[in-house]
Each structure stands twice: as C-alpha cells, then as structure tokens.
Amino acid sequence: MIFLILAIFSSVILFFLFKEFEKQKINTHNAITFNYLIACIMGFLLHPTKNELNSILYADWLIPTIILGLLFIIMFNIMAITTQKLGVSIASTAAKMSLIIPVLIAYFINSNTPLSNLKISGIIIGLISVYFTFKKETKVNKSIIFAIVLFIGSGLTDATIDYIRNVYLNEVSEFTLFIITIFFVAFILGLINIFFNKQKINFKDIKAGLILGIPNYFSIYFVLKSLEILGSITVFPVLNIGIVLISCTISWLFYKEKISKINWIGIFLACISILLILWF
C-alpha cells in the first residue's frame, strides 16, 4: 500500500509545482522539456535490464511511441496552463475523469469489452461531474477551453497507451522501456520547440525541470510497483480518487482556491464515477 500512497502524492505534487512555477516566473515549457530529460535519465538508471535498451530501435512500438511523445509534452503543457489559469481542482478532475474516454473507445473498438449498467451509469455521472466541477458562479472563463482539451487529450493519450500495451508490450520491463522512450522523445520535441521559437534557457528553468522530473518519473514508477502488488482493480480507483480529493483539498486549504458547493458536488460525483467505472 505504501507504493500506492507514494504514487498518489507524486502525482499531486505535479499540480502544485505548476502553481509554484507561475509564482516564481519560471518558463513552464522549458521546465517541462527538461523534466522529461530528468525522467528519462532516472528511468535509465533504475531500469533493471539496461542491456535491453538497444532493442528500442527495433521495437514494433517505436513509431507510435514517437506520436505519444508529442502527445505527452503537449498535454503536460496543457495541464500546466489549466492548473495556472483555472486552479488545481479543475485541472486534477479534468485529468483524472478523462478515464471515461479510453473506456468508451475500448468498448466501441472491441465488442467483447464488457460495459455493464453500472459502468454506463459511471460514465454518465462522470460527464455530469465534469460539468459541475468546471462550473463557476461568475461568467464563463474563456480559459475553460484548456480544461476541455486536457480532458479529451488525456483520455486519448491514455487510450493510445492502453492500445500499445495490449498489442505490443508483453512484460513489465518492456513497458518501462516504452515509458523511457516516450520521455526521451518528449524531451527532444520540447527542445526543438525551444530552439525553433528562439527561447532563452536559463538555469532556473533547468532546475525547475529537475524538481518536476523526479515526481513525474516516480508517479509512473510507483504505479507500476503498486500494480505488481495490488492489481489494477484496487490501484486505479484508489489512485484516481486519491489524486482528485487530495489535490482539491490542498488547493482549497493552502492556495485558497474558490471551490463552490456545486464544484464540491462535482468532485464528489467524480469519485463515485471512478468507483463505478473501475470497480464494477
């Protein structure tokens, strides 16, 4: 259970680092780019079978992984923007409720994928929860588009990962190689964007990337460790609910984010939705 708790807090830390980056005037894109370099290095150092690294160039999943690397850096930037413009509660709920999308895609692509009445109820409740969580008492914030993109983009990213995992990956060690490759591709693409836009890279951004890269890597590492011990039926519901509840509570208590009663109802419904979708 300790790995699952560490996975939750590693993920929660990411949202609050984005809030701090905004306060410290850090170039978030630069920090995210170097975060992937740090995560890639950590994956390489902690990978138990380094002699398999040369197999990446011949892997069947190399091309789709390049596409995923692009999705990763785009969505991480969107998550940062959503967090900074709309708050941690909306960003965390949008990111975690995106699990609805891979569930629906799996059902429509594979007719053998079961979709019980409880799962259908969970999906409907999930969509309602997203509306309630995003709803503000004041006029609609134009920045809400970032939360919508985060919701859809995160779901499509998770669906792509799930597809590659089921079709191409056979072992946990191969999945680790897959993740390391995504991190490396995301770093290269981020670096290309920095140079293309002639952005200045300073030590503060690199240091921020180091700070971000450590919990980012471990948020995945601890999930994999939790899955080995507890299994997906326990891990994913607890993980997603834990991230949503802890993120929202901390943002409300310490960052004084305004969370209305209807927003709390949305957060509560999101937790119910996660339980119905992942446990039944």
Could you explain how this protein is built, in words?
This protein is an all-alpha fold and 280 residues long. It has one domain (2-279). The chain contains 11 helices and no strands. It has helices at residues 2-23, 28-46, 62-86, 88-97, 100-109, 117-134, 144-167, 172-196, 203-230, 232-254, 261-279. Helix 2 crosses helix 9 (203-230). The longest helix is centred in the C-terminal third of the chain and has 28 residues, at 203-230. The model has no long low-confidence stretch (mean pLDDT 88).
Give a concise summary:
With 280 residues, this protein is mainly alpha-helical. The protein has helices at 2-23, 28-46, 62-86, 88-97, 100-109, 117-134, 144-167, 172-196, 203-230, 232-254, 261-279.
Q: What is the distance, rounded to the nearest whole angstrom, between the alpha carbons of the first and last residues?
A: 21 Å
The total of beta strands comes to 0
| Domain count | 1
Order of H and E elements:
HHHHHHHHHHH
Backbone structural class: mainly alpha
